[in-house]
Write a structure and sequence with these properties.
By secondary structure, the chain is α+β, with helices and mostly antiparallel strands. The protein is built from five helices and seven strands, in the order βαβαααββββαβ. The protein is globular.
Length: 133
């Protein structure tokens, strides 16, 4: 399945996690056909530090676990070629993965959900999120 690396300071793109595509397809009722490898680009750190101050420093080491063991999974209705993973750590962290047209997965952002309990419940009711069971 490939090697997962955890070199968060790397200047090269790297595989940071592996998604269970069959399970995602089953939970979301879709039929993604793609590599399960999730890539992280070096620009992710700079993006998260700029857009979501403090989140990188607190949670970057949890990225592989969020990918492997999310609490919830869903799709952003405005981004049909995306997967959202939510994991409760000390905050509820949302990790957004985009699907490149060529079929590979990459992390586009991650951040804490403010007012997470209400947001998660609202997204569960609307169907945007589903439990990852």
């Amino acid at each position: 399945m490939g090697t997962v690396t955890k070199q968060y300071e790397s200047t090269e793109r790297q595989i940071i996690g592996i998604l269970d595509i069959a399970k995602i397809n089953q939970i979301l009722g879709i039929d993604y056909q793609m590599s399960p490898h999730v890539w992280m680009y070096p620009g992710l750190k700079k993006h998260v530090q700029k857009r979501h101050p403090g989140i990188w420093e607190l949670y970057h080491q949890h990225i592989p676990d969020i990918i492997q063991n999310p609490d919830y999974i869903g799709q952003n209705p405005k981004e049909p070629n995306s997967i959202e993973l939510v994991k409760q750590i000390s905050d509820s962290i949302l990790l957004a993965i985009k699907i490149d047209p060529s079929g590979y997965l990459f992390i586009s952002t991650f951040y804490d959900l403010k007012n997470a309990e209400n947001k998660v419940q609202k997204r569960l009711r609307s169907g945007r999120l589903k439990p990852y069971e």
